[in-house]
Design a protein that fits this description.
Distance between the termini: 8 Å
Structural class: alpha+beta
């Protein structure tokens, strides 16, 4: 069993599947506030005033005025009941505040954490990328359905069912914040509609002195795997055996994960080197240079996880797609529009502060025992 210490190197987003609703937001001039309704509803006086005005609050055109009336009557300082606030984004066509999609971080009993399934998925994708990318690419060119079953068999026969990763300890809530993320086009100086995510921030972009890491355990059930291998109930031939031997050996596992991360970093730097937006290009290049240094430390590798972290972090591909693969992807989603010579053409970034952007999803993983 390995114990893993996990730290965010860039903003991390693992979605809960839920969004902040209009009901939870209040617009006051040029600021939009996300209110902490759990905290507000623990105040009996607020609940009483809320019930008295519930018809107005349920009316979108009256909601903000009704809430402001309650805040004034009870002398509530909005800064004490907010989760986050940001500059109100105005729709240029209508002149009214824009309706935003704000996605929340996964939590349990109100506390944020990294699911073991998210870490397992990222490690699983990385190892497939290392050992089986050619097989995946070959199958994709001929058909795109059930590619994994062609290689591993069904889930009951996969080597990865013997890999167990626990959910992490809870994240320090002081490092959780709502931040704007944007989609940058590599080839055009083109903006996108800003959206907000609830994310786990790296310590270096905050002024918080406290520790900012979580821990979990990783275990490959070797004896169980061997019994199933002997019984012939799983697929364990060819390059699949490289995956099992990597998961059984701590030092080999770390070395392979380092190599995978190094290749991913170089691929991202190659894409970013073609960016038209030079300011964004310089910031992202500096980030990946620093990330590369972290990846070289003893017993450490970096890993990309979570939502909005990019096409290559979610797939087995390690090289630019062939025309046949692109055509297959077009069959999967006929609405996609992209330049085959430059796919994917976008980079998702988070504005961590007024002058700094970072890509989403990079963790530093230290194997501590």
């Amino acid at each position: 069993m390995m114990r893993l210490k996990i730290e965010p190197m860039s903003p991390i987003f693992i979605g809960s599947g839920e969004k902040v609703t209009k009901f939870e937001m209040l617009i006051r001039g040029d600021r939009t506030y996300i209110l902490d309704f759990d905290k507000l509803m623990n105040d009996d006086k607020f609940v009483e005033e809320f019930v008295n005005r519930v018809d107005r609050i349920l009316n979108p055109s009256e909601k903000d005025k009704a809430l402001e009336d309650i805040f004034r009557k009870l002398n509530i300082n909005i800064d004490t009941v907010k989760k986050h606030d940001f500059k109100t984004i105005i729709d240029k066509k209508t002149g009214k505040p824009r309706t935003l999609q704000i996605h929340t971080f996964i939590s349990s009993a109100g506390r944020k954490y990294i699911p073991g399934s998210s870490l397992k998925g990222a490690i699983r994708t990385a190892l497939i990328k290392q050992y089986l990318s050619d097989e995946f690419a070959k199958h994709l060119e001929s058909r795109y359905r059930n590619v994994e079953n062609e290689i591993f068999g069904d889930a009951k026969k996969s080597v990865f069912k013997f890999l167990q990763i626990s959910d992490s300890t809870y994240i320090n809530s002081k490092f959780i914040a709502f931040k704007m993320y944007r989609i940058l086009n590599i080839l055009k100086q083109k903006g996108s509609i800003p959206q907000f995510l609830e994310i786990w921030l790296p310590k270096k972009v905050t002024n918080i002195p406290e520790e900012n890491y979580v821990e979990c355990t990783l275990e490959f059930k070797t004896s169980w795997y061997r019994k199933n291998q002997s019984a012939g109930t799983i697929r364990a031939e060819g390059k699949i055996t490289h995956i099992s031997s990597t998961l059984e050996d701590k030092q080999k596992f770390i070395a392979i994960m380092k190599e995978i991360a190094k290749n991913s970093i170089e691929r991202e730097k190659t894409r970013i080197s073609q960016m038209i937006d030079k300011n964004a290009q310089q910031q992202l290049m500096r980030f990946y240079d620093e990330l590369s240094k972290e990846n070289q430390k003893d017993n450490v590798f970096v890993l990309r996880v979570g939502g909005h972290s990019g096409f290559y972090s979610k797939t087995a591909f390690t090289k630019p797609l062939t025309q046949a693969q692109i055509e297959t992807l077009r069959k999967i989603n006929r609405h996609w529009k992209f330049n085959p010579a430059m796919f994917p053409v976008t980079v998702r970034v988070v504005d961590v502060n007024a002058s700094t952007i970072m890509p989403l999803g990079w963790l530093k993983v230290t194997v501590t025992n």
